[in-house]
Amino acid sequence: MKRLELPNTRTVSIEQFRGPTFETSANLSRIKGIHFPEPSQMRSRRVVSRSNARSTGKYPSWKMGRMMHWESIHELNAFRLLDCDPNVTSYCEQPCQIVYVLDGVERLHYPDIIVTTTAGKQLWEVKLRSNASEPEVLARTAFLSRALPRWGYEYQTVFDEDLAKQPRLSNANLLLRLGKRAVNDCEWEGVRRTLAEQGELLWSEATSDNYGAKGREILLSLVLRGILTIDMDSPISSATEFVPKNGSF
């Protein structure tokens, strides 16, 4: 089956692509189409407006080079984590409208985020764990998880508590605060020589200016760009070791 790739420049109506069908207790269920917004719209529906009753805002994405619109603190946390994941090449909020039939009823669904990684494309639904067990949500999640891979997408429900998990989120905030500046050739060579001579790169050495006045920024910049790695599930401390990714040096 031909895969639908994410279009960048136009709205797509996909009636010519037939989605998979699944037998339910009542009717055949299927995806009828996936529609993307015009370039001038950028999002499939509006997120930030003056009339919003709930908290919304804009996040300056380092990776995407633009303001990302969020409608919950959980989406904001997701943006920060995606910005720090070198396996993520791009992401976009409110990317599309999915038209599908479930139990004989036509429905619409707006995923929160589309994530493009080195392994493929994912559609994320950011949810409170307490809401994810609602019968309608469970049925939709089960159906889209089965159906969307045939359209070229993996469907994932991402929970609020996982996005807020510490110390990963604090580490991400530190990376974004100090690591956005690109490393120049001289700084790169300094890191390479230090690693060759000492055999390791430690946060304690960077904070002591043993890697230069901008040692912290240099190490974090290289992590942000996927050249060095750290354990994101452990707090960044004096003992944190920065390890080269395979083939980086």
UniProtKB/TrEMBL annotation:
Cross-referenced Gene3D superfamilies: 3.40.1350.10
InterPro entries, sorted: tRNA_endonuc-like_dom_sf
GO molecular function: nucleic acid binding
Protein name according to UniProt: TnsA endonuclease-like protein
Organism: Edaphobacter aggregans
